[in-house]
Amino acid sequence: MRKLQAPRGTLDVLPPDARRRLDVVAIAGEVLGRAGYEPMETPVFEDTELFARGVGESTDIVQKEMFTFEDNWYAGLFFRHEAPQAGRFWQFTQIGAEAVGSDDPTLDAELILLLAEIFERAGTGPARLRLSSLGTPETRADYLEELTRFLRARESELSEDVRARLDQNPLRAFDADHAGTQAVMAEAPRLVDRLTPDDREHFETVKAFLGGVGVDFEEDSTLVRGLDYYTRTVFEFESERLGAQAALGGGGRYDGLVEELGGQPTPGVGWAAGVERMLLASDRPGDEGPVDVFVALADGGASRNGFFMVQRLRQAALRAELEQAGRGMKGQLRHANRIGARVVLIIGDGIEVKDMETGEQRVAASVEDALGMVEELLA
Ligand code: AMP
Predict the structure, then answer these.
(1) Nearest CA to ligand 1 atom 11
(2) Of 354, 346, 349, 356, which is closest to residue 323 (Cα–Cα)?
């Protein structure tokens, strides 16, 4: 029997990639679990109206219980209808973590640190951490106006491309390769310099915490996240091993979001990371590890006996597989070798126990005797 396996160099729904996906999710669960993040399956945010309609606006659920401090994580499938390319799919797996109910800067730093640890354990290799603070939406709106005014005043020095999009997205000017634009942008006002004293202090504290635990980051005042609900901290990890779609994961604070959705003012911070991107960058193999015992069927060996034997082995917490492909003995032993089985039990008239390391083969007197011999060989 040949098990389905995905070709190398692609990401697939088949082994070993499906296993690697599960491994990454397990790593995330372990790292986040140690920090007190509980798994969740529901959306982080649901419009309060939805709850209010369901339970009545004045109940405790809406007024109090919804807004206690919670830290949670999730893993799930996401769908985005964007032009597919390497690392950008219509269906992908995201893991995410959110801490809702506190604006404490230790949370921003902790979440970034946890994500870095997940990347490290998942073997995604070197990643650049870009970090910035967006302040409040008001600060941002004022700043965008100031920047647009600044760019307008120096319009003749800018590239055509930047000029054309000046009103839609003046921030793009920071990313331009055009020398003239770059010279202008070196003198452009920066959002981080316009933060309110509170926001600035929050940002400085987050940076100090990250520095204090040895996390390298690049302060990047041009960092903008796709959604405009972000406030204060924003960050993104970019892998050096990925192409154009280099973002492994990112997130930030969204202190105004809950209120915007109709809830009480409730701060929050979180991130999301793409599991497929992590797998594309990762050098961690998806090997399943060796099988303890392969149960082979000799000529005349009843598959019924093999079936019961393999159940006994699994009950003893061993990893055991049974011959189910109708192979001859030679083929079975070759297969046992290929899957790395340490011991082969050959079911015929009786039971023989073969040590795959030495090749030595012994006759067992009973099922119990065979189990004892297996335990001994695996000890
Ligand atoms: P975002 O919230 O857009 O920053 O997405 C979080 C992470 O999910 C990104 O950093 C990517 O790793 C991953 N991601 C987002 N969109 C896609 C996509 N279309 N295909 C694969 N991964 C994606």
Answers:
(1) 274
(2) 346
- Supply the pLDDT for residue 47: 58
Residues found in the chain: 379
With beta carbons less than 8 A apart as the criterion, state whether 49 and 263 touch.
no
177 has a pLDDT exceeding 70: yes
Atom of ligand 1 nearest to the CA of 247: 10
CB 72 within 8 Å of CB 43: no
Per-range mean pLDDT, top range of 36-50, 70-84, 112-126: 112-126
What is the 8-class DSSP label of residue 88?
B
For a pocket test of ligand 1, which of 44, 88, 93, 239 has the largest count of ligand atoms closer than 8 A to its C-beta? Answer: 88
Distance 99 CA to ligand 1 centre (A): 20
Q: Answer whether residue 232 shows pLDDT above 90.
A: yes
Atom 13 in ligand 1: which residue has the minimum CA distance?
A: 274
The whole-model pTM stands at: 0.82
Tokens of 12: 């697939």
